[in-house]
Sequence to fold (227 residues):
Amino acid sequence: QKEVEQNSGPLSVPEGAIASLNCTYSDRGSQSFFWYRQYSGKSPELIMFIYSNGDKEDGRFTAQLNKASQYVSLLIRDSQPSDSATYLCAVNGYSSASKIIFGSGTRLSIRP
Amino acid sequence: EAQVTQNPRYLITVTGKKLTVTCSQNMNHEYMSWYRQDPGLGLRQIYYSMNVEVTDKGDVPEGYKVSRKEKRNFPLILESPSPNQTSLYFCASSLTPQGAKDTQYFGPGTRLTVL
Fold:
């Protein structure tokens, strides 16, 4: 079982709709959860992080964490073509609180 | 401007020819890491460093070496590159261990092809 799993996509969403990206992780002891966005040919950049169960909102982005289900998601409201990118879920790993494990990413495409 | 720089950005080389990819950060971060990114496999950590002269293996260290003689620099060394090391490489730095409590700042990436 992969430690951090994401659907590779591509996920196609019409402009203006809500894009929902999901991630599951295997280590129940994980404490920190991150969403990075990576445009094609570019480096990853952090867009959201969450530590506590529940929702965390930042502009059009909402991160949702459910530790009991070992599930973290990212919602993007009012999706724009500029949101088309690969979204990487990252979780602090099982062997040490300082180790970050990345998922393989979900490719999101916003169609006009 | 806070940044992580890598050089070269693109490199084509042949099997067995030693190479070094440089990484430098200007944020006075203690923690630095090297990752490789391959299709379908995501980012996998090669090595990381907690401070000058302190380094440790990540998930895929075989065939790589690193050094941390200065806080700002963290070069990645491939002593004898092989085709399976063809990949996109990222250097990253952070305030906290591997960005456990904050973001990691990534360099622009180095695309390496080993023939």
The mean pLDDT of chain A is 90.
